[in-house]
Amino acid sequence: MARTPGVGKPEILACVMFVLDHKGLRTQEFDLLKYNPSFTVVQSMNSNHITAQVQFTESEGTFTRYNKVGIQGQEFLIIHFRTPDKKEVKLEFFVHKIDGIDFSRQNQTSMLTLHCVTKERLISTISSVNRGFINKTFGQAAAGIYYSDILRNRVYRNYFEDKQYSPFVSFEIREFDLHPTDGIQDWVIPGLQPDDAIEFCARRSLGKGTPMNLFLYYETFDGYCFHNVEKLINDGLKLVKERDLVFFYKPNEEGTIPVDPLRKVENIGGVHLADTIDRIGTGAFRNKVRTVNLINQNYNDVRYNYSTENRQATLGETFLIDKEFQDVFLANDEYEILLLKDNSKKNQFFEYIQGHRMAYTQQLTSMTCSIEIQGDTSIIPGTVCEFSIPEMAGTSSTERIEPTKFSGNWLISDVVNTFDQENHRTSLNLIKDKTVATSGFPGFDLSLST
């Protein structure tokens, strides 16, 4: 089948490996492109850092000779690539593990896989946050930790901060994008690594006008994010078409309606519906947070009810588990969380975060799927897309309905770019909490079945 020129063929501008020591660049940069490596680069809302796997086969003894002892898991790697006419991406990795090692029977080649994570992860691992924060929001503290404990770390400043070692080896500062948080507090972070300290802040952040209070700390091609998921959804719903994030799946398409090759879904996988009984048992539909005040010796209850909660950001308008089922079977559900509280401290509002955030997190993954398209470096997690899986009905007497429960808006949670010098694929993991209104079986009258 003829392929649109340039579509699915990446441009890899550089893939160089090197070692640093106290003087700077210890070894000459080593060009891995001559081994025709394959790359898997992962961005995920569930991971603090971008990760990569680089697999290649070599026959020059590089695995055992590079840097005298061979490739060991202390190297750095720069990958610079782009999709034709799309975003150019330059990532700076630390190689932290080598596996997939295999040798040919003729003792001629070695195959190995480099496991990589962006360099900031290394700095976080060798740092510690052990101090108090006064009159700060948790979002302000998170940004302060990133700038003070990662970017201002002595090792980072000496070896990474805007360093240019050669035409191919340079480091750049990654931005930190912060969504606003509410609630001024005083607290102490007790000796956590910076990544864990920022996660500590995310779990306690109160959103402004977003009652589910779900904040995530993750990295995309644009930089680091401390983002409010409800804000991502509310903003993203308005920008789907502007961001060109409408995808199509028509496996029997005859070409009568032109579709952008970069927006044509080639494969669908991983379609999953959440386990209803598991979610009932963990308070996803109804829960109560009982807060016991140790000072005043009283308590307060904060309740969450999915069927009546209409303030949360949502990706559809129709419940996947319908309201009638919730009213009949879950009306007396009392999943309870107990919190102890010192009311002498100001702005203690964790009871308004715990139950709502826990339930909302589960509801957002009520339905998941993955889609694969031609390679596109412009797509990042945390954006909203539109995608519809058509109804699978092969019986000639069955009239297909559109839309289906799999139609409408989805949140992109993970983006995986897999490529070599000839081919490039992008896989997207999609999640959603609600769906669009559907008509059911054509001509079916629900009242006649009772």
CATH superfamily of the largest domain: Bacteriophage T4, Gp27, baseplate hub, domain 3
Shape: globular
Q: What is the number of helical segments per DSSP (H or I, 4+ residues)? A: 9
Biggest sheet overview: 13 strands, mixed
What percentage of residues falls in helices of 4 or more residues?
A: 10-25%
The value of Rg in angstroms is: 25 Å
β-strand percent reads 35-45%
User: What is the C-level CATH assignment of the largest domain?
Assistant: Mainly Beta
Secondary-structure-derived class: alpha+beta
Integer average pLDDT: 87
Q: Indicate the CATH architecture of the largest domain.
A: Beta Barrel
Number of folding domains? 3
Provide the fold topology.
Blueprint: E1 11-18, E2 20-21, E3 24-25, E4 30-31, E5 38-44, E6 51-58, H1 62-65, E7 76-82, E8 88-103, E9 110-118, H2 119-125, E10 129-136, H3 138-151, H4 154-159, E11 176-178, E12 181-182, E13 185-192, H5 194-204, E14 206-207, E15 215-220, E16 223-228, H6 229-239, E17 246-247, E18 267-273, H7 276-281, E19 286-293, E20 298-305, E21 318-319, H8 323-329, E22 335-341, H9 351-364, E23 367-374, E24 384-387, E25 409-419, E26 424-432, E27 434-435
Parallel strand pairs: 11-16, 17-24, 19-22
Antiparallel strand pairs: 1-4, 1-7, 2-3, 5-6, 5-25, 6-9, 7-8, 8-9, 10-13, 12-14, 15-16, 18-23, 19-20, 21-27, 23-26, 24-25, 25-26
